[in-house]
């Protein structure tokens, strides 16, 4: 009967952990005396440990109270069980050799030309999806790919089949050490799993642990501008350039659109139609850049006031970066400076030019970004306008997505429902 053991062969830290299969018989292998050879094959696993932390007698980490060592021991146990199943399935059908064991640990795939490296598959995925996904999605995929490139410089190449619990924990620790926000890590793991699922659909091997990899999102404080704060913004005296930015901010808060859409608004998109009562309604028609949806929205009286002030034209378009910078100035001048909890990008250290999100208590004006208009529209009108109409205006795909977007939990909705009883 075959037995499986783990051992290390080096005193250097870290040392590779080897797996050794002994005791059974090797089909097709004979000695010079025509006796069947005893089974004794060894191969290196992907696991490593400091030799000082390894128990030769137990063939396991010494301190199993340590969370990392406990997990390593669990992974080795899983590997041992999988190998034993594979041996019992194939013994008698194929020679059980060192090459057989190496093939089990690192299968040579028939890839059909598909890349097996995770980073290269990102490039392949983008190349075939670029005509059906948005530029924004492509940018996000490239951000994750570049982060993986930096990760690989420290941890070695990542194959699709090796996206397992070890990779997940290692990648998360790497991101945390580089001060990436928790929800950013969770979002990027979703991208990685999407890539792996696509590869699996094309016949590539993925790890059995891949589907179970999860980094839960944590609830964040959703910053938005209240009706009172919008009134302060309307009244504050500003120079011409900041007035231009103020008008865009108000337009975003009264249309609920992303900057990629509202900054493209032009006079030519504005039309007039009559409602059932015969009243003329001024609308704007456009394609949402992110979703591709055709949108038709009635223009709020505040937007119409801005257009009238500008002889029917929208404000002058500016870059996303300048807009994000200037709306903070507008809100500061409007005295929207109360301290609130939120997150903002800060330099990791002076002069590094590397920015990460920092959570803390800040003046509200410092937390304002281009997305605040969309969230303000959704939040301020929730409960005033039927949710189905709000969803039609924002372009969210489902009510659940919309409610999550404005930070409404199941308990929040239950309390609101109770008001009607």
UniProtKB/TrEMBL annotation:
Pfam families: Phage_int_SAM_5, Phage_integrase. Residues 118-204 form the Phage integrase SAM-like domain. Residues 246-407 form the Tyr recombinase domain. It comes from the Bacteria. Coiled coil: none annotated. Keywords: DNA recombination, DNA-binding. Gene3D superfamilies: 1.10.150.130, Intergrase catalytic core. The keyword Membrane does not apply. This is Phage integrase SAM-like domain-containing protein. It comes from Flavobacterium rhizosphaerae.
């Amino acid at each position: 009967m075959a037995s499986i053991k783990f051992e290390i062969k080096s005193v250097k830290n870290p040392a590779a952990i080897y797996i050794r299969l002994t005791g059974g018989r090797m089909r097709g292998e004979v000695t010079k005396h025509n006796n069947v050879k005893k089974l004794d094959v060894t191969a290196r696993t992907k696991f490593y440990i400091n030799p000082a932390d390894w128990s030769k007698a137990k063939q396991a980490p010494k301190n199993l109270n340590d969370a990392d060592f406990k997990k390593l021991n669990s992974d080795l146990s899983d590997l041992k069980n999988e190998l034993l199943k594979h041996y019992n399935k194939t013994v008698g059908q194929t020679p059980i050799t060192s090459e057989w064991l190496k093939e089990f640990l690192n299968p040579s795939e028939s890839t059909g030309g598909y890349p097996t490296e995770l980073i290269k598959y990102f490039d392949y995925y983008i190349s075939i999806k670029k005509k059906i996904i948005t530029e924004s999605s492509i940018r996000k995929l490239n951000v994750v790919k570049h982060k993986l490139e930096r990760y690989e410089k420290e941890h070695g190449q990542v194959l699709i089949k090796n996206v397992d619990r070890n990779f997940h924990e290692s990648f998360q620790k790497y991101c945390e050490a580089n001060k990436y926000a928790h929800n950013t890590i969770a979002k990027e793991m979703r991208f990685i799993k999407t890539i792996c699922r696509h590869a699996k659909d094309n016949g590539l091997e993925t790890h059995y642990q891949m589907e179970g990899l999860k980094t839960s999102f944590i609830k964040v404080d959703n910053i938005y501008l209240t009706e009172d704060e919008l009134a302060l913004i309307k009244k504050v005296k500003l120079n011409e350039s900041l007035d231009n930015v103020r008008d865009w901010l108000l337009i975003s808060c009264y249309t609920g659109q992303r900057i990629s859409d509202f900054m493209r608004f032009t006079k030519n998109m504005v039309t007039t139609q009559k409602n059932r009562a015969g009243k003329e309604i001024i609308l704007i028609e456009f394609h949402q850049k992110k979703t591709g949806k055709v949108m038709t929205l009635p223009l709020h009286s505040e937007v119409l006031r801005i257009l009238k002030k500008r002889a029917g034209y929208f404000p002058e378009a500016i870059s996303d970066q300048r807009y994000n910078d200037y709306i903070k100035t507008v809100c500061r001048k409007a005295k929207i400076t109360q301290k609130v909890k939120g997150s903002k990008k800060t330099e990791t250290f002076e002069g590094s030019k590397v920015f990460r999100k920092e959570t803390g208590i800040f003046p509200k004006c410092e937390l304002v970004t281009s997305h605040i208009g969309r969230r303000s529209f959704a939040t301020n009108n929730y409960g005033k306008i039927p949710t189905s109409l709000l969803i039609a205006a924002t372009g969210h795909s489902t009510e659940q997505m919309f409610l999550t977007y404005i930070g409404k939990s199941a308990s929040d909705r239950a309390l609101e429902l109770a008001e009607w009883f």
